[in-house]
Amino acid sequence: MSNHTEEINRRRTFAIISHPDAGKTTLTEKFLLYGGAINLAGSVKGKATARHAVSDWMEIEKERGISVTSSVLQFEYDGYCINILDTPGHQDFSEDTYRTLMAADSAVMVIDASKGVEAQTRKLFKVCVMRKIPIFTFINKMDRDANDTFDLLDDIEKELGIATCPVNWPIGSGKSFKGVYDREKKCVISYSDTEKGTKEGTATEIPVQDEAHLKEMIGDEAADKLIQEIELLDGASAEFDLDLVRKGELTPVCFGSALTNFGVEIFLKHFLKMATAPLPRKADIGLIDPVENEFSAFVFKIQANMNKAHRDRIAFMRICSGKFDAQMEVRHVQGGKVMRLSQPQQIMADERKILSEAYAGDIIGVFDPGIFSIGDTLCMPKDKFCYEGIPTFAPEHFARVRQVDTMKRKQFVKGIEQIAQEGAIQIFQELNSGMEEIIVGVVGVLQFDVLKYRLENEYNVEIRLENLPYEHIRWIENKDEVDLDKLTGTSDMKKVKDMKGNPLLLFVNSWSIGMTLDRNKGLVLTEFGRN
Length: 531
Ligand code: G4P
Known about the structure:
Distance between the termini: 37 Å
CATH class of the largest domain: Alpha Beta
Oligomer: single chain
Bound molecules: guanosine-5',3'-tetraphosphate
Number of helices: 13
Radius of gyration: 25 Å
Strand content: 25-35%
Mean pLDDT: 84
CATH topology of the largest domain: Rossmann fold
CATH superfamily of the largest domain: P-loop containing nucleotide triphosphate hydrolases
Low-confidence stretches: 38-58, 64-69
Structural class: alpha+beta
CATH architecture of the largest domain: 3-Layer(aba) Sandwich
C-alpha cells in the first residue's frame, strides 16, 4: 500500500449538526480533547472561547455575538485523521451551512435530550437524507431532566423519517442519571461526573445479568425498569445493520453528556468504526475513486474579505481524490486554466497556515482572485471532468432590492453579482426584465443585513430592501416541456428567473404549491436547483 493510500484510508470527514445550544461546541471540544487538535482552522465557537475570524463585515457577527461562517478542524485519534466541518450554530444560518454538508462524508447530529428534534436539525437533516450520508446521533445533556427515551427515538423516526438503533440506553436522567447500558457488551456503565476539561472518568462496568450488583449500583427501581426497557427495546428497535447505516437509512444513537464528558469517547469510537473513509464521488465521466485517481477537488464555499487590507476571497475546497501538493499544477475546469493554487492553506482563527500537502478527505482554502464559483472542479492538468454541481438550496426569505443612488448602477450590479457568486445570497429577476428589478432570496434573514453591509462597505452602494411575502421557491424540473406563459398558478404566485435564465416560481404558502401542481398537470417542481 502506498503512503497516500494509507493517508486517505485513515481520513474521516464529518459535519456536525444541531440546533443552537444542543451542545455541538461542547461535544466538539471534548472530541478535540481526546485527539489533541493538530490544526485549528476557524475556531470552536464556545461563548467563553470565542475566537472569531477577523474580517470587517464580520462585525455583524461580533455585534450580534453569533457566527456567520463555518470552520474546519482537524485532529488525530486512534490512528484516524479526522476532519470536522463545523456549521454555524444560529437560527439565521445561511446556505453555507447546507453546502458544508456537501463536503462531508457523514454527519454527527447532536440533540438536546430535553428538547428532541428541533427546527434547524430538521432542515439540515433533509440535506443529509438527500445525499444519503450516514448520520450518527448523540443525545446530549442526560445529566439534565430528559424526555422519555422511547419518545426521543420516536421523535427522530417520525420527524426525520429514519430508523434508529440505540448503541446504548440511558438509566434515568438529571439528578437520577445513573449511567448507560451498553447493548453490545450487555453491561451497565456507571455515570461519573468528570471534571470539565478532563478525559472520561473511570466508570464501573457491571454485566446486566449480575442483578445483585446492578441493584446495588443503580437501585432496585432503576434496575427493574432497565431490565423491562431492555426487553422492550430488543423486541421493538431496528436490528443493527451497518449497510443501512452507511446508506443513511438507520442512525446509531448514543446517549451521554458532553459537559460532564460522559459517553463521548464511546460515541467517538463507535462512530469512527462505522463511518467510512472518503468515498468515490460522481463526476460527469463516472465515479472518481479517492485512492485510484490522482488529485481532484471541488469548491464548496467561498468566503470574501477575510482581510480588509487585501480584499481577497478564500475558496474552500474538498479534496475528493489523490494527494495535493502545493507545488503542483492543477486544472480549474470551469475556468479552462491550468495553474498553481495560490497559497493553499488551512484557515485558522486569526492566522492561516500554509500547507504543503493534503489528501482526499481534507479541506483546503486557497486565495481566490475572483475566478472560482461554488461547485467548480479542480483536477490534474491531464484530466478534464466536472463533479456534479452543488444543489442550490431553496431560500425562504425574499426581498426586492432598490438602489438609493441610481447613478451607481455598475457598482451595484457588480457587487450583487459577486456576492451571489460566493453563494451568500441568490438573485432573481422578473421574467421579462433585466437587472433593474432584482429579487434577493436568502436562507436566513441575517444574510439581508450582510448584503446591505457589504454593498455599502465594499462597493459603496446604498440599497433599500423591501420584504416580499414569499416563503417558498420551486425550480421547474421539466422546464423544456412546460409553456411558461400558459402556466397558471394561484394569484399570489410569481414567475421569476435565476441568473442562468432558469424559470422559477415563488409561492406565499405550501397550499399554493399544491394548487399550482393541481392546475398544471405534468408540471414537476423541485426544491433544489443545480449550479
Ligand atoms: P451549541 O454549540 O450547540 O450551540 O451548544 P454549546 O456547546 O455552546 O452548549 C450550549 C449550552 O449547553 C452551554 O451552556 C453548555 O455548557 C451546555 N451544555 C452542553 N452540553 C451539556 C451537557 O451535556 N449537560 C449540560 N447540563 N449542559 C450542557 P451555557 O450556559 O449556555 O454556556 P457556558 O457558559 O457553559 O459556556
